[in-house]
Design a protein that fits this description.
Radius of gyration: 24 Å
Number of helices: 12
CATH class of the largest domain: Alpha Beta
Order of helices and strands: HHHEHHHHEHEHEHEEHEHEEEEEEEE
Structural class: alpha/beta
Strand order of the largest sheet: 5-4-3-2-1-7-6
Oligomer: single chain
Strand content: 15-25%
Distance between the termini: 23 Å
Helix content: 25-40%
CATH superfamily of the largest domain: Glycosidases
Length: 450
């Protein structure tokens, strides 16, 4: 990426183990994959599924008649830990079919998926030997991470774990929430013990479920989590899964301003205006307003809007991690299922305009967005008007311009020279698709003036 040598880009455990006590005793011969090796599949994927599922799903956003919250409900509604713990008896996702989830993601063209193994409330969706606050102590006794990872891997979808560094449940996690300092005094709490616990749970996630492709951290912003602690965890993870990708939210306080840890950035609920040129990034965005299921959240983005979001991220060189908050019983909200079907129908025809593409070459586009794939340029027409669609700055003559239609059909469009470059002549009526796509073919690498 920056011209550094292969040797300098490799991380050797032998060197790290001397500086990081947490790594002592690990195999010093192990060589971690380079950034280019790790990120190759991720840059091709462009589209992933995010799932926020946990005890908070049982409450569905409501506590004592108030309907303000979702996955942050324990903190925001000031629920005492002993009351929140009673939700263990209600966790029983009897309607859950992990293969149905995986099949829906596959049809929608999602190439990887990230599941909340533990959110900020501390509840683990896996069989943790270092905690009783997990699925094995519920009526279900079903290891969600085991069954989920098998189902998604079987469909060729890469597996990612979300894991919160912040933990409102563990007695050694600090700082305490302001509202519970009196009811849960700090006493002899030691953050170092919590760090050991965090390491132990991450070890379980990386040792018991096969190849893990992404480690997606969150809850790293409190001052107790430092850059030095993040370095130790980062190195430990990479020795267990040398090809794993880790997001930038692993880093903590004191991280260098010019770039900390992590393979990619994670803008939340937004798409950067110009992307982040030269840096890998992924926008994580909800289908409605909340991450976890909230029964009163009816502000669903339309299927068209979700496709526009996917196209915008790809056109700016980023990935989209699209979130669903499942119900406590394991079903997806009907609105989410409807949107996944609509996305799947569009991606069946247009998936190659997203997967394996790079950012737009156009700097002056006003009625369309675009992605690039070697000698092809895909135009997503956001403002359809019959007649000339001006391609400002295009200096290379297209050999063809093809409008994609349902069922794999295609319609050849005329291309005209224009004072600003070239123009594609659009029919008066837009095709009946969520977002029309025109593919330009070139005999050579297209040149587009800034």
């Amino acid at each position: 990426m920056t011209g550094e040598s292969t040797v300098s880009r490799r991380h050797f455990v032998a060197a790290s183990a001397l500086a990081i006590p947490a790594l002592r005793g690990l195999d010093p011969r192990l060589v971690i994959a380079t950034s280019e090796e790790r990120m190759a599949w991720w840059r091709e994927a462009r589209f992933g599924l995010f799932l926020h599922w946990g005890l908070y799903s049982v409450l569905a956003g409501t506590w004592k008649g108030d309907e303000k919250w979702a996955e942050w409900i324990r903190n925001n509604a000031h629920i005492p830990v002993e009351e929140y713990d009673t939700l263990l008896t209600q966790w029983n996702p009897h309607a859950w079919d992990p293969d149905a989830w995986a099949a829906a993601a596959q049809r929608a063209g999602m190439r990887y998926a990230v599941l909340t193994t533990k959110h900020h409330d501390g509840f683990a969706l896996f069989d943790s030997k270092v905690s009783e606050f997990d699925v094995m102590n519920t009526p279900s006794k079903r290891d969600i991470c085991r069954d989920w990872s098998k189902a998604f891997r079987k469909r060729g979808i890469r597996v990612g774990w979300y894991h919160s560094i912040m933990d409102w449940h563990h007695p050694d996690y600090l700082p305490r929430r302001d509202w519970e300092k009196d009811s849960r005094p700090i006493g002899d709490a030691r953050f170092s013990r919590y760090v050991d616990y965090l390491h132990a749970q991450v070890d379980e996630l990386l040792s018991n479920y096969g190849t893990i492709d992404v480690m997606w951290f969150d809850g790293q912003w409190e001052s107790t989590w430092s850059h030095e602690l993040a370095q130790a965890l980062d190195a430990r993870i990479r020795t267990k899964q040398p090809k794993i990708i880790i997001n930038n939210r692993i880093d903590g306080s004191g991280a260098p301003k010019d770039g900390g840890l992590g393979d990619y950035g994670t803008p939340e609920q937004e798409i950067p205006a110009t992307g982040t040129p030269g840096k890998d990034w992924e926008s994580c965005i909800t289908m409605n307003d909340n991450w976890g299921f909230k029964s009163q959240d009816h502000n669903w983005k339309s299927p068209r809007r979700l496709i526009e979001i996917l196209v915008e991220t790809a056109s700016k060189g980023g990935n989209l991690l699209l979130n669903i908050g499942p119900l406590a019983d394991g079903r997806w909200p009907p609105e989410a299922e409807e949107r996944m079907r609509a996305i799947a129908e569009w991606m069946q025809v247009h998936g190659d305009t997203i997967h394996g593409t790079t950012a737009s070459l156009f700097t002056k586009a006003t009625r369309f967005r675009s992605t690039t794939a070697k000698r092809r340029v895909h135009l997503f027409v956001t403002d359809w008007q019959g007649g000339a669609l001006v391609l400002s700055g295009l200096q290379t003559t297209p050999t063809s311009a093809t409008l994609r239609l349902a069922g794999g059909r295609k319609e050849r469009l005329a291309v005209e020279q224009h004072e600003e470059g070239y123009a594609v002549v659009l029919p008066a009526m837009a095709p009946g698709t969520l977002l029309p796509v025109i593919t330009l073919q070139f005999a050579e690498t297209p040149v587009i003036a800034a």
